[in-house]
Write the structure tokens for this entry.
Amino acid sequence: MKSCINGATTMPYNLEHDIKSANKVGFKGVEIWVSKLREFLRDHTEEVLKRLLSDSAISAPSLCAFSGFIYCSEGEFGKRVQDLKNLLKVGQTVGTEYVIVCAEGFGDRRIEEAKHAHISRIRRLSSITGDYGIKIAMEWFWELPLAIEIVREIDDERVGLLVDTFHWYRGDGNLEHLKQVPSDKVFFLHVNDCEDLPRNDLTDKNRLYCGKGILPLSDLFSIFRDKNYDGYLSVEVFREEYWKKDPEEISSMAYRTLTETASRCGFSLS
């Protein structure tokens, strides 16, 4: 497995800071936060980004995250697709493998209606991202069984799941549901810990570095190992307390806690 840090973990800092601090502390990858990418491209080209990544020996495995595709009108969908294409071109240039597409829940819709809306729109998106050699990792925020149904029915090798340890726990924390995710549909992992609070009270601000909270990370990592997952373990922690530190200190703590936790669980990170 490979170590990675998500741009949300260093949210106040720009993309160049993310890449350089990740390299300095030992990370192998940086998930590019999309708003930071837009900011970077105001003054730089994608070729400059490619050189920056190469010079820092850092990969960019995903662009994170895109939302608003599922229930929008056809007109709005077309606008969002055009914006997505602009960034897919950048991702293609720098060797990105995945785009993270956020699921959108149910609202007042029936489950079947919500399910088929996700299937239809993500299937259409996969044909677009596929033109750039990039896959879709759908990020799910609730109980996993419905997400599993969705990716199975889409039945496209370019579509799988992003499993986030915090979202899994807040969704229902059921290890059996995690075991049910098909091995070939675990595309990407966000790893983090969280405070000991009732699930319904948890928000992103309650995330912690790996090993600092109550998540059963050893059990989770064992499940991923059984699925022969060999991709990235990406630290994604939205926490203002951490954001007050400088980017290198944040990255250093993220890397140290990730590697220590992985080691305790019998994983070695490349």
